């Protein structure tokens, strides 16, 4: 049995969607157990089926707008997030899924789970949709603002193994996010990373990739530093949201338009679903001793279920051990 | 009369769309003359009305995929782009519009038009659409990869005056592109620029802006270094293109969907037009002694007309002189 810790109190719709997501996961995945960390009286409002689900009581939550995430974790060791993280470190659980505040989760993961010794910097790696339907890993969206090329190489190794084991891509291609496709483009960092990737046999390097193909990239992994990849993710999100708003406004103009819109409702829903990040799952934090999955703050039950499924896959495929072995061999 | 130089041979559809755009501009704007630089025999295939349009013969073009833009300009002084740029420097014309290769145009503008002495770095500043319909200036999308905070302040002054004079925004708000909205977010550069903007009375500073509101920003100007802003622009472009492809695919599914799509055709066209950059005009290169407008490589006649209109507005409002005066006063 794989045991998944769920931070039931973090996120915009906690604990309702977290609890419902957990029950959904239990109904669909046979070899997992779930431990819900949170306020039992709140959780029990929604928990209608206790099959393979237990509750561990926690006290307080980490505020979503927390300014000082490290203190937030240190001063709230009994919060649902902190207790769920600690359970991974102690071995009580095999993985944690949380849709709590990102920075607090990262800080907490460092403090309470710990970094794997072969990786010098963690990275947050969401999976983004693409026009072709194939999933694409984007990293680091987590905020390692200034990073050394060799640390990015370690992250690329992790992403490669993740894409192979979890997304079932045979030889995942790595693309370096850049302002031009030619060799030698970009900042000093980009040039150095380019050479490192090119020279490494375990990396299937697709060269520089411009984000004007962000939804149709010639690779399976899009990588940059924690500032740039975060900007890419947020611009993608902002453009999708903005276009959605414009489209809605335009489509309902005029009588013919309104009828057209009615007839298109089902297709538009499918379109929206294709872009929804929660259909794919959460973002894994690479580089820790344990499996930590960040689900979107706005995750509903389906999103949370997908995060739990993803966490169980990472455990089942023993991704962290495989990464350690590759990095050991690489001599990092 | 304002005299506009048009690089008739640069761009994906040259010279047809350039020539038609020029004729359209003449028909709509009374106080301009246009000089078309290019191959007269090619131009005359499309030039059906010579009113206030003259042709100056050039030799050869700058290739769109030019690897070494500086040599390309130096070795092709008689190309349409080089001759059109030189005409601005010599005073034969007041502004140039080109949809030729961006890097060659920037290099050529430096060599043949020259940088204004008060600005240490040029910037490319396209105007992007927004959900509310108000135009937003984005800069620098041009590739000053490593830049000093005080040079970004100069660029922000330019953008402020441009937005006021050309976009008719009374007190244009400047937003610093960043990975979080809180003060103190971002890289060292971002932190220093934040303080400079905050302290400057001529800058109406809106603070840090995350690109997840890129199409609905709480400001009129979005600024970052030449790497980051280029990444934002390309991600925006890539997301819009990708979403367009997905939408088309989804909307035509099923019989009802197909009928709905037919009824929505007019609205979808309006939607597409709202996002089309060429409806707004080209990107101005800030920081030169003359007015240089880069129209999209894929510009059709309307896009080119909008670039010419924009160029004439910048000349009419005497933007460059106003910027010089402000920067002189700022003591830069």
Description:
Chain A is built from 11 helices and 12 strands. By secondary structure, chain A is of the alpha/beta class. The first copy, chain A, has 2 domains: 1-119 and 287-332, Isopropylmalate Dehydrogenase; 123-279, Isopropylmalate Dehydrogenase, CATH 3.40.718.10. In chain A, the strands form 2 sheets. The first copy, chain A, has a 7-stranded mixed beta sheet, with helices on both faces. A 5-stranded mixed beta sheet of chain A has the order 6-7-10-8-9, sandwiched between helices. In chain A, helix 1 (16-28) crosses helix 10 (301-316), helix 6 packs across helix 7 (188-199) and helix 6 (149-165) packs across helix 11 (319-330). The longest helix of chain A has 24 residues, at 228-251.
So what's the oligomer here? homodimer
Low-confidence stretches of chain A: none
Can you name the CATH architecture of the largest domain in chain A? 3-Layer(aba) Sandwich
Number of strands of chain A: 12
**Percent helix range of chain A:** 40-55%
At the fourth level of CATH, the homologous superfamily of the largest domain in chain A is Isopropylmalate Dehydrogenase
Query: Which class do the helix and strand fractions of chain A yield?
Result: alpha/beta
- Counting DSSP H or I runs of 4 or more residues, the number of helices of chain A is 11
User: Strand content of the residues of chain A, in percent?
Assistant: 15-25%
Largest sheet of chain A: 7 strands, mixed
The residue-averaged pLDDT of chain A reads 92
Q: Which value, in Å, is the CA radius of gyration of chain A?
A: 20 Å
